[in-house]
Amino acid sequence: MAEKQRWNAGGAWKTEGARRIADSAGRGFPLARWQARLDELRVAHRVPGASLAVLVDGEVHELASGVLHRGTGVEATTDSVFLSGSVAKVYTATLIMQLADSGALDLDAPVVSVLPEFATPDPEATKAITIRRLLSHTGGVTNDFNHDSGRGDDCLAGYVEAAGDVALDCPPGTALSYGSLGYVVLGRVVEVLTGKTWDRALKDMIFTPLGLEHSMTLPEEALRFRVAMSHLGGPGADPDPAPAWDLMPRSAGPAGRVIVSAGDLARFAHMHLAGGAAPDGTRVLSEEAVAAMQRREADSPDKWTVSADGWGLGWTLYDWNGVAGFGHDGAAIGQYAYLRVVPGAGVAVALLTNGGSARLLYADLFRELLAELAGVTMPAPFGPPAQPPTVDIAPFLGTYRREGVVITVGRKDDGTPYLRYEFVDGMKDLSPPLEADLIPVSETVFAASGAGPSFSEDHMPVVFSTLADGTACCYVGMRATPKVA
């Protein structure tokens, strides 16, 4: 199923059936051909259902393939909604930038100046954590603090209070380390400065001005729509419906829950491409704020997990052989979201999926789409070279720990280096420990086998680095875990 949408004279989105516009598909965008390719790749990678939206020449083309639920056989359509996972962070970052635009917030102010109750176990480090550092993942806060503070409107306040006892992963300003905790804190900042819940602020400040009718944050709001069910399973087999649709608490919203259609995600990206303007000319963000979000704040030691060359204020930043791009990935219990934007070409591509080898589908599909529409050459899939270099693993052996996670790097009896990744503390029962052999890619980068294709195609990158204060650390999943033994 495919549709194309464009701005109409009244500033609203106009939808036309694909059959009526097949002969006027913009910049050589043949809907039928891309629909067939989406169908083909989805089946090949055992993804139950997928929705794709492509913005080109100011028009949004929407396609859908497969089913929302393998148990019921309900068809995926272009108006279906999916869990977008961490793509929610970009929405929260946009809210923060709106507040900065209004003069209500200084990005370089300490978080405690706006939110006095914000704390970490290190009082001096707490004072050094600014709004900008949380936006750019350089504040040192952790990712794996899973705390259910209830369903009430005070859930973010409860989360921030509980987070005061959570250790930092690393000192503020010493590394880029991906952290969801910081975005929940930013969501609470939005609440304090607007007097609204994060959910309501997002509706009033972004969804409504942009006319995003298939975007929401609460599960009960999604019941009005065709909703994608998560699917779980190992590689090489069709995944089965998950036992529950969404296991995240409400407090995870600012970091991990915007429920959205692919078309609405592309329209949100279009606002950022349009210098912050809504379709009717209403200014949602200043041009300066839009540019600041896309300006590099930190380089990424791990350039493979989410294809990040660096980070801006909310956006993941890409450098495709000199072609600049921005976007974000998201994962939510078997659902995977991918957004890539090429500002120089005015192109945005959004893909939402509900299980299977979603990253392989993304890699194949986006490699073709971005090459044709934006002249982008995406990097080859991550993996070890045919003849791996000889690297001494000895300097990296040991134990690495951060909140919720312990990583052990060791040698097997035959000398093969391996990694064990284990959830502990409040994350203990999230999933079984991951064990993988480590194959050298370079002096500090290794490919872990057996991680699962949805995580990082066929191999998971493991990067050894050093924090700015000299502490050795191990990067898995864009998270810096300091060496403790």
Q: Average pLDDT value?
A: 91
Reported for the largest beta sheet, the result is:
11 strands, antiparallel
Low-confidence parts: 6-26
Question: What share of residues are in beta strands?
Answer: 25-35%
What would you say this structure looks like, in words?
The strands form 4 sheets. Strands 1, 2, 3, 4, 5, 11, 12, 13, 14, 15 and 16 form an 11-stranded antiparallel sheet that branches. This protein starts with a strand and ends with a strand. The longest helix has 17 residues. 26% of the residues lie in helices and 26% in strands. Strand 15 and strand 16 form a beta hairpin. It is of the alpha+beta class and 485 residues long.
Keywords:
eleven-stranded antiparallel β-sheet; eight-stranded antiparallel β-sheet; 14 helices
Topology diagram in text:
Elements: E1 2-7, E2 13-17, H1 31-44, E3 49-56, E4 59-69, E5 74-75, E6 82-83, H2 88-101, H3 111-114, H4 123-128, H5 131-135, H6 155-163, H7 180-194, H8 198-210, E7 215-216, H9 219-222, E8 231-232, E9 240-241, H10 253-256, E10 259-260, H11 262-273, H12 287-293, E11 298-299, E12 310-311, E13 316-320, E14 323-332, E15 335-342, E16 347-353, H13 358-374, E17 398-402, E18 405-411, E19 417-423, E20 434-440, E21 445-449, H14 453-456, E22 459-466, E23 472-476, E24 479-482
Antiparallel strand pairs: 1-2, 1-4, 3-4, 3-16, 4-5, 6-10, 7-10, 8-9, 11-12, 12-13, 13-14, 14-15, 15-16, 17-18, 18-19, 19-20, 20-21, 21-22, 22-23, 23-24
Helix pairs in contact: 1-13, 2-7, 2-8, 6-7
